[in-house]
Amino acid sequence: MTGADRHFENGTDDGLADGLERLWTPHRMTYISGEDRPEGGYEKPTGCPFCRAPGLPPDESLVVARGEHVYAVLNLYPYNPGHLLICPYRHVADYTELDAPETAELASFTKGAMRVIRHVSNAHGFNLGMNQGGVAGAGIAAHLHQHVVPRWGGDANFMPVIGRTKVLPQLLADTRDLLAKAWPA
After folding, report:
1. Is the pTM of this model over 0.85?
2. 3-state helix, strand, coil in the chain (%, to 5)
């Protein structure tokens, strides 16, 4: 019996009038509300999580691999397990601001991320992309980052469409450990 059935059957207002069950994900409110944003914002390197991450211990930073100019870090609010961000160490906002070595290593790390994710989790495909500027959807527009989102057949099930909820079957720390161990030295 659904919530709506119970509501209509007993004729009471039990708070389930829409017939939807609830899967609560309160951890997402930190992202939605911006509670974890630094007071000065992300625009300055001192408040930028992508500038801070490489200096944190691995279990806090979620950094998977480090290069000379860029690094790979798990997205704290992933679309799918293994959702990586490839970030330059340098605090730049626009792709055109990267120099040639940064551009080359960003491309190489993106390819490497795809190989590692395929090896670890047998991804069927990927969404790759950069949102350039807040108007284009960048949550942290001040520091360039390339998204590498693994996809599997059937990964977009009813939950995001009907339940407006994304179910992630793996903890970030576990995903980080798997990817970091598989990343070539």
Report:
1. no
2. 40, 15, 45
